Amino acid sequence: MAGWKRYSVGLIGFVCNLYAESYTLGHGVQMNDWMSVGGYFSSELESNRNEDSFTLDDVAVMAYGDINPMLSYLAELEATGFYQKNFTADTESGSQKFHFERMYGDLWLCDAYNVRFGKMLTPVGYWNLEPINVLRDTTSNPLYSTLLFPRFLTGIDINGYVPNTEGLKYNLFGQSTHDLDEEYINIPNTHFYGLSLDKEFSMEASAGGSIGEYIALSTRERTRFVQANAKYDVYQWGVTVEGIVARTDYADNRTDDTISGYAQGIYRFNPQHALVGRYEYYDRRHDDYTDHIGIIGYSYRPIYPVSLKGEYQWHSQSGEDRFLASFSVLF
Amino acid sequence: MKAILLMVLVATMAAADYSVVISKKTAFSALSMQQIRDIYLQKRHSVGDKNAIAVNILGHDEVREIFETKVLGMDRNRLNTYWIKQHFQGVTPPLTQPSFESVKTFIVNVEGAIGYLPSDMVDSQLKVVYEF
């Protein structure tokens, strides 16, 4: 009987697809019952004290779908630095090699218990889970999101809603193997464990935090981190804050903290035009490297999945100021 | 007589225009607005231990827009942004049906299906879990 019910639901689901919504840019294309496809690209223009350059930065394709009501998958291949032109040196370069950005399955058992296995974005904070240019409001990423924890996880993430709570989600994750594509991760490692909690207070407000530990493959240095994040967004304007304290046992037998974070505000004049400001702080005590970064940017989206952005960065470190602009599209 | 007419008028005005409904056979019997929102935004896929399958009316239907504004609390622009972000996460919007008749048929025949209808289409095969 249960098998017959599943068959009936599948049959009805198939019939439903005859009435699928027409294609809209940014929503992907539903090929059939078990596969949707999409992709994105971004290009970037940078001008700093040393050089002016253009980069066709991300070219990515992705496929995902439900194999059955309990099992789904997502695969994404991406080439970064696809084409680069340095106007100052008058050189061209690029790599058309595609890497595994994500490759995972989801085994859904109930809303409190979903098991994700494979290579995935590390479930820490907000920025790391929406890392692509077209979904961001600035061309640049904050240092917080790129230097202090592995952006990807090749392992298992058990996640879901904590039972008997309203909107409290958890992620318990671990990696004890090499990354699926070690050329394509900011911190290669074979040891990464963590726990994240995120509470959605309303449609507008949420907050959360994470703890974790990893050992960098190249140096064998162990880092433990505590991270926190909060967001308030009423659509016309929004504020996002994230911060992290990472304590590393360095190879020279010293233990030092790195503290980093950012606060970003956005004001949307209308769905197309927005003004963005961000303050970043980065303090690596091991070698006394500190940078305060102020960013002001403008975002124009003729439609949401098409993004044109420009920003200027002021750094307290000399020689780091720069102008960035980008154009990106999500299919 | 005037009093009866007034009562009928008040009752008619008080009745909700639209209802969120499930099949009479479905195990759960009431849903909060938050639960309906989470199911329609594909954040949750069950109510207790019972599966929940959301179904939308196809396209830019006026009732769909009222549902999205009043129950989901999102206008078209915001919802579009939400689904574009979900596309990157590998999550697709709920199933659609071309008419309210087919929405009703789907709900009656699929255990756990949830949808919204004009209240005057609700009959003994359906349970109302929310009104708007």
Structure description:
The complex is a heterodimer of chains A (331) and B (132). With 331 residues, chain A is mainly beta. Chain A has one domain: Porin (Beta Barrel). A 16-stranded antiparallel barrel of chain A has the order 2-3-4-6-7-8-9-10-11-12-13-14-15-16-17-18. In chain A, strand 8 and strand 9 form a beta hairpin. Chain B has 132 residues and is of the alpha/beta class. Chain B has one domain: 3-Layer(aba) Sandwich (D-Maltodextrin-Binding Protein, domain 2). In chain B, 42% of the residues lie in helices and 23% in strands. Chain B is globular, with a radius of gyration of 16 Å. Chains A and B meet through helix 1, strand 2 and strand 4 of A and helix 4, strand 5 and helix 5 of B.
CATH class of chain A: Mainly Beta
What is the CATH topology descriptor of chain A?
Answer: Porin
Termini separation of chain B comes to 30 Å
Q: What is the H level of CATH, i.e. the homologous superfamily of chain A?
A: Porin
Distance between the terminal alpha carbons of chain A, to the nearest Å? 41 Å
Q: In the CATH hierarchy, what is the class of chain B?
A: Alpha Beta
Order of helices and strands of chain A: HEEEEEEEHEEEEEEEEEEE
**Biggest sheet architecture of chain A:** 16 strands, antiparallel, barrel
Residue share in helix of chain B: 40-55%
The count of DSSP E runs of length 2 or more, i.e. the number of strands of chain B, is 7
The CATH homology group name of chain B:
Periplasmic binding protein-like II
Give the spatial strand order of the biggest sheet of chain A: 2-3-4-6-7-8-9-10-11-12-13-14-15-16-17-18
> What proportion strand of chain A?
over 45%
User: Count the helices of chain A. How many?
Assistant: 2
Tell me about the largest β-sheet of chain B: 5 strands, mixed
- The CATH architecture of chain A can be given as Beta Barrel
